[in-house]
Amino acid sequence: MKPNSLIFSLCLLLGITSCTSYKKVPYLQTEDKRDVINLRTLSKENTVRFQPDDALGIVVNVVGEQSVAYDYNLPLQPTATTDNSEDIVNQGMGRQTYMIDKEGRIDFPVLGLVKVAGYTQEELEKYLKESLRDYLKVDPIVTVRLLNFKISVIGEVNRPGQYNINKDRINILEALALAGDMTIYGKRDEIEVIREMPNGELKIVTLDISKAQTASSPYFYLHQNDQIYVVPNSIKARSAFIGGETSLIVSVFGLLFTVTSVIISVAKSK
């Protein structure tokens, strides 16, 4: 094969490979740019629901009758923080938390045992507000927060680890952003979401975030204790079986082969 033909073939092969690889890189691709995904509707449909072992922060306020509201709140307790260099005590006061038991209940002041598993934040606020109306002269203000909303991101990301979420919903792209985004070795078409279902079963679902349709998946928005595993691609898998010395030897021989090929091509062209 003539040198010019060889160079042309290599360039063509590189061009085809580059185009194919690039299509796997961008997130949420769609063939029709006019496609619209209503994330607000999807987020409502996939809102986090409380389950056993969740920790809830619930505060009841009564406008004009704050002293009455004390009977419907857990007692205040001192909160303390310590620093590595010296002990520093924060004299602030914080509410105790409600732990949901294995039956999905909490022991709420005055109301007693209340089934809360399966409720969303808004649903539980509404339910408690309606339940307390019989005891109060005015409508109370009830605030509910999930205190142990955590997710884990592992695999081919830049900062794997467990992350505390300080809001009531998060999607998989936001989770990847928390972990510093995927590395170049992560497979965008094979991201596993591992979720423990209310019945105790462990469900593993594979998402392809290179496609826009993935945003319609019920697993696009994450739940408490979800684990996201970014699967490594074949390049990373192969490199795991090649030691550092082997890689160096292969690189040196590859460089020598390239240099030799160039010298022979130049000599023949003269």
Give a description of the structure.
The structure is a single chain. The protein is α+β, with helices and mostly antiparallel strands and 270 residues long. Among the domains are: 55-146, 2-Layer Sandwich (wza like fold), CATH 3.30.1950; 149-236, Outer membrane lipoprotein wza domain like (Outer membrane lipoprotein wza fold like, Roll), CATH 3.10.560.10. Helix content is 30%, strand content 23%. A hairpin with a 3-residue loop joins β5 (105-108) and β6. It starts with a helix and ends with a helix.
Annotate the secondary structure layout.
Blueprint: H1 3-22, H2 39-45, E1 55-61, H3 66-69, E2 76-78, E3 93-95, E4 98-99, E5 105-108, E6 112-115, H4 121-132, E7 141-146, E8 150-155, E9 161-164, H5 172-178, E10 186-196, E11 202-207, E12 227-232, H6 234-239, H7 244-269
Parallel strand pairs: 8-12
Antiparallel strand pairs: 1-4, 1-7, 2-3, 5-6, 8-9, 10-11, 10-12
